[in-house]
Amino acid sequence: MNLNRRDFIKGSLATSAMALGGIAHAQAAPEVILQKTIPSTGELLPVIGFGTNQYGTGTDLSIRNTLKQTLKIFAENGGTLLDTSSHYRGSEGVLGGILTELQLTEKAFIATKAGQFDELPLETKLNNSLAHFGVDQLDLYQIHNVAFQDWRNMLPPLQEWKQEGKIRYIGITGSEDVEHPEIAEAMRTGGVDFVQLNYNVGDRNIENELLPIARERGIAVVGNVPFGQGSLFSAVSDVELPEFAREFSQSWGNFFLKYNVSHPDVTASIPGTSKPHHALDNVQAGMGRLPTSAERKMQEDFMASL
Ligand SMILES: NC(=O)c1ccc[n+]([C@@H]2O[C@H](COP(=O)([O-])OP(=O)(O)OC[C@H]3O[C@@H](n4cnc5c(N)ncnc54)[C@H](OP(=O)(O)O)[C@@H]3O)[C@@H](O)[C@H]2O)c1
After folding, report:
1. DSSP of 142-160, one letter per residue?
2. Number of other residues whose CB lies within 10 A of the CB of residue 179
3. What's the pLDDT score for residue 22?
4. What atom of ligand 1 comes closest to residue 52's alpha carbon?
5. Cβ < 6 Å from ligand 1: which residues?
6. Which of 126, 146, 182, 262 is most buried, judged by most C-beta within 10 A?
7. Cβ neighbours for 302, distance < 8 A, ≥ 6 positions apart
8. pLDDT in tens, 114-172
């Protein structure tokens, strides 16, 4: 792997976090975001990231200012992982511009994606992504919805770009259970550092086959749609946070996200939001203690009882 200035900064941050934080998988200090290890390198990554598929709307100035505020709050509280895609209607450009203005590009862990949803060659998409962020290296480059892509022919160029230092990690993504068999096959071929999958307390099917493959193969897991695209909030709209959960959660957002990242095989979760106060709520889910396995079971039972 080629080292550049971005690696140096990230490596330094990881080292100081380890030295300072006594980083553990189950608990962080109240105001320090918990980090977990990326299995293929040992690098640390904060457990709460940010999904930016709504950022394409940020071409409108007032919406852009609000998105900028969400990102500022996220970063001020220790968040680094930002997930976007070449296919999120302008999200990459808006995100790249805001990161530059906030001088956060170097600190961010930039995860983007590309798929063959149009005629544009993959290499052009990569170059466009690098240009949107003004960097010569992306942290994570993912095959978007791998189950619908010619991934066997897409992985070799990604390996080449990793060798050349244009990307640091290779990933694959999916968001529907129907995609899981193909994702399992892609995970087993090797050369994949990250897999991004649908995971939340109401959608736990990845626990059966995909999480064990990730553990066995040393693949980092990022959980997407952690709120079921908001449906989990609808399910609890007139429900009080249960007493047992107040031990580790201040809000329903905390409850859902802490469930996700307390699974030992889940590295990080990437909630999406367009609201600054939700960005704060979400990143705070990475702080303090996570539920134990017994409490996770109580969370599952509580949600199933609604
Ligand atoms: N195949 C793929 O690769 C794939 C597919 C789907 C998603 N993803 C990734 O996953 C990310 C997350 O998915 P998503 O945004 O669709 O779904 P999500 O994170 O499950 O839910 C987002 C919804 O939750 C609400 N919300 C967020 N934080 C909240 C809080 N603290 N309290 C109350 N409501 C809150 C948001 O509303 P507000 O805006 O009002 O906060 C929004 O309606 C995407 O941005 C994308 O990066 C990847």
Report:
1. EETTGGGS-HHHHHHHHHH
2. 19
3. 32
4. 45
5. 51-53, 83, 113, 144-145, 173-175, 196, 224-230, 233, 253, 270-275, 278, 281-282
6. 146
7. 242, 245
8. 998 888 999 999 999 999 999 999 999 999 999 999 999 999 999 999 999 999 999 99
Strands 50-51 and 44-46: unpaired
CA of 227 to the centre of ligand 1 (A): 6
Element housing 294 (H / E): helix 293-304
Nearest Cα residue to atom 1 of ligand 1: 174
Q: Select from 48, 53, 110 the residue to mutate for testing ligand 1; criterion: most ligand atoms less than 8 Å from CB.
A: 53
**What confidence tens digit (pLDDT) does each residue in 31-70 have?**
899 999 999 999 999 999 999 998 877 778 889 999 999 9
> Considering the entire predicted model, what is its pTM?
0.93
> What are the tokens at 165?
């230092």
User: What is the distance in A from the centroid of ligand 1 to the CA of 157?
Assistant: 30
- The CATH code belonging to domain 45-304 is 3.20.20.100
Compute, in angstroms, the gap from residue 172 CA to the centroid of ligand 1.
Answer: 19
**Contact by Cβ (8 Å): 38, 222:** no
**CA dihedral for 243, 248, 249, 254, sign (positive or negative):** negative
Q: pLDDT tens digit string along 204-255?
A: 999 999 999 999 999 999 999 999 999 999 999 999 999 999 999 999 999 9
With tokens 């050349």, the residue in question is 164
